Each structure stands twice: as C-alpha cells, then as structure tokens.
Amino acid sequence: WVRLNVGGTVFLTTRQTLLKEQTSFLYRLCQQQDLHSDTDESGAYVIDRDPTYFGPILNYLRHGKLVFNKELAEEGVLEEAEFYNITPLIKLIKERIIERDSKATQQVPPKHVYRVLQCQEEELTQMVSTMSDGWKFEQMVNIGSSYSYGTEDQAEFLCVVSKELHTPGSGLSTEQSHKTKLFQIHGSRM
C-alpha cells in the first residue's frame, strides 16, 4: 500500500493503481527511487495540492471513469489532472468541458427586438408584404375607425414586428439594411 498526504489529507491506495499511467507524476513517484519527495512522520508522500480535487484523480486511476461531485468545478479537476500528467484524463475532462459549454450556449433562448409601426390602411398591405431581413409580423391592432366619413378618413393600424437579436460575437451582420431603415422611418411617425 502507498500513503499519499495531499494537502494534509491522507489517501491510501495500491501501488498498482498509481502505476496505471506511465507518464504520470504518481507513476514516477512509485517507480523512480532517485525522485526525492518529502514524506510525513507516517511515511506518506507529501504532495502540496488540493485534496478536494485529488479524489477524482485517484478514482479515475482506480476504475478508469471520471466521477466527481457536482460541487466540484471541472476546471479544477482538469488543473489537477494536468499537474499529475494523466493524459487520458486531461483529454476526457476537456471533452466534458466543451460538451458542457456547448449545451449551455444551446439552452439560451434567443432574444428578440420588437418594433411597433403605425400605418394607414392604404399602406398596410405593402408594409406587411415587403417585410424581410428576418422581421416577422407578430400582431396588428386597429387604432382608428374603419368607417369612412370622408375621402381622407382611413383606418389606422399599429403593427408589431419582431426580429431575432444577434449578439456581436455571433458572426451575423448587425448592420441595418435599407428595408430596416424604412421600417424605422414608418415607425417614427407615431
């Protein structure tokens, strides 16, 4: 049996477990007699690292699987795997971090920008039919009378349109197109 004093916490494991990864610091600790390492009063090798993150490292060497509490940051376990130079574990944790980060970005619902445009009845058909550049018609509200009292009286409408808001880092252009500017002009008449 081999005793390891990691940051004040003593771990007990077999020599076979520590010899599983030939490029690791722990392998060298067991194999190379010329590697001078401090020991405590009980003969345990003293390693100045965080014992919280050493548990998952040791368990990986024991059974080849990465298992740790959700309270532990994967980046912390990665840091320890890199210190102990356990290459397959480093690769596994990096893959998990990439997978976690990609899931996190996929779960963020897209944000939308909404605009309210005011138009006369005669402009309504043209405005709705020429909408483009990602703008979607959401709702229309009649705010004026639909009865004609004279030749100039027309119904007025408020049209709500929306567009998915792209963040600057998404690679999509945020420049305003000609049609978008026209929507803004129509909307500013309110």
Automatic annotation (TrEMBL):
Please report the name of this protein according to its UniProt entry: Potassium channel tetramerisation domain containing 17
SMART domains for this protein: BTB
**Any Gene Ontology CC annotation:** cytoplasm
Q: Which GO terms describe its molecular function?
A: cullin family protein binding
What's any GO biological process attached to this entry? Answer: monoatomic ion transmembrane transport
Coiled-coil residues: none
Please, which domain of life does this record's source organism belong to?
Answer: Eukaryota
Any Pfam family matching the protein? BTB_2
| Ranges for domain BTB | 1-101
- Which keywords has UniProt assigned to this entry? Ion channel, Ion transport, Transport
